[in-house]
Design goal:
The chain is 8% helix and 38% strand. The chain is mainly beta. The strands form 6 sheets. A 6-stranded mixed β-sheet has the order 1-2-24-23-22-21, with no helix packed on it. Strands 8, 9, 10, 11 and 12 form a 5-stranded antiparallel β-sheet that branches. A hairpin with a 5-residue loop joins strand 6 (97-101) and strand 7 (107-112). The longest helix is centred in the first third of the chain and has 26 residues, at 3-28. The radius of gyration is 26 Å and the shape is globular. The relative contact order is 0.12. It binds calcium ion.
Length: 383
């Protein structure tokens, strides 16, 4: 072999090694669809504009594995989720139970609300926590009522005291029982009541159905309520099931409509929201119109929460989560369309993630083998 042939072979071998090296490097590069960098790619999600109303359907499946976690499964007819310190508590509508979710996702009975009677949409509905009290809203054989219990113990050993009724005699029915309770930034307890299948009562200021009520933590009428001596804060509601406040103290409520329009309202003291005289947005001097409306088949909103400039609404029939940016209250983005079925409640967990509570086992959904579930979503998912 002469020198010329040797150097040719050497060049060939070096070229081969370089080529193999390049191929190996190329094989180890992440493909486009699996790249974590896709999280920051605004074109990654499939977005469709719905021309009927300003709802944008958002699909961000590529983020799911890192951003979404199943907290617990196989809940029976859950309705409300709240936190006592960092302990998640859930009401089960049809079996009178309040349960805590342990860190490993298992469920433990905290106590039973013996007077609660499941009936249609009624039963054990809303929960709220204030200091070391757990507040409940539920349907009995003769009324809807608000009660409270003292919570004691810690994660894994939580228990409730004897019950104290703080408000009773609210009209009840199979449908339209309202049932969401939340403490406002003013330290008062706000309670949504449905029209209890008596639409005219929503305009009647002598009865408490079809209203949003404002109570002291003991259940008394606050001195500064808009109507002296009355628990009524706002009226003309059909079946509101969500309330929340932004950091400016503006109050919002989601409301289930009849056949036409579900509503998102800004709630102010003594306003009349129109039911049953108007439904949805209508120009009148007498009634306050919603800031956004949806066809009832698309939404049927229940739980509502606020975080960092955005409202989050749990949709039942819509099988989705609506996200509304305060910079444009007239449009919304739709998340998880059809992925988890009906969604009943939504809240911000102590770790800052968003938790949603599905609602497929109450007789109106098509439960999967793991329903109902709580799903935790990293809040950055919605950026
Ligand atoms: Ca209305």
């Amino acid at each position: 072999m002469n020198n010329h042939t040797r150097s040719k072979i050497l060049i060939f071998v070096i070229t081969l090694i370089v080529l193999i090296g390049l191929i190996i490097i190329a094989m180890n590069l992440p493909s486009n669809s699996e790249s974590p960098n896709n999280n920051n790619n605004p074109n990654n999600g499939v977005s469709n504009s719905n021309s009927n109303n300003n709802n944008e359907i958002v699909d961000e499946n590529n983020n799911d594995q890192e951003m979404i976690r199943v907290v617990t499964t196989n809940l029976e007819s859950p309705w409300s989720i709240v936190f006592y310190a960092d302990i998640p508590l859930v009401s089960l509508r049809d079996n009178q139970e309040i349960i805590e979710i342990l860190e490993d996702g298992s469920q433990r009975l905290v106590g039973k609300v013996e007077q609660a009677v499941p009936r249609g949409e009624g039963g054990l509905l809303g929960l709220a926590v204030y200091d070391n009290f757990l507040y409940t809203y539920y349907t009995t054989a003769r009324d809807n009522r608000v009660t409270r219990f003292v919570l004691s113990g810690t994660n894994g050993s939580l228990s409730i005291s004897d019950e104290e009724v703080i408000l009773e005699g609210l009209p009840n029915a199979s449908n339209h029982n309202g049932g969401r309770i939340h403490f406002g930034p003013d330290g008062m307890l706000y309670v949504t009541t449905g029209d209890a299948a008596n639409p005219q009562s929503s305009q009647d200021l002598s009865v408490l159905s079809g209203k949003i009520l404002r109570l002291t933590p003991e259940g008394d009428v606050p001195d500064d309520n808009p109507i002296r001596g009355s628990l009524i804060y706002s009226f003309g509601h059909r079946n509101p099931q969500g309330i929340t406040w932004d950091e400016e103290g503006v109050m919002y409520s989601s409301e289930l409509g009849q056949n036409t329009w579900d509503e998102l309202n800004v709630i102010e003291a003594n306003n009349n929201y129109g039911w049953p005289l108007i439904e949805g947005i209508e120009e009148t001097n007498e009634f306050v119109s919603p800031i956004q409306q949806w066809a009832t088949s698309e939404a049927s909103p229940s739980g509502l929460t606020y975080h960092d400039g955005k409202l989050f609404i749990a949709n039942l029939r819509g099988n989705s989560l609506s996200v509304i940016n305060l910079t444009d209250l007239t449009s919304s983005e739709i998340y998880f369309k059809g992925e988890y079925g009906r969604i009943r409640d939504v809240t911000i967990a102590p770790d800052g993630s968003l938790w949603i509570l599905t609602n497929n086992t109450d007789g109106r959904g098509s439960p999967s083998s793991t329903d109902d579930q709580i799903i935790a979503i990293n809040i950055d998912y919605f950026k």
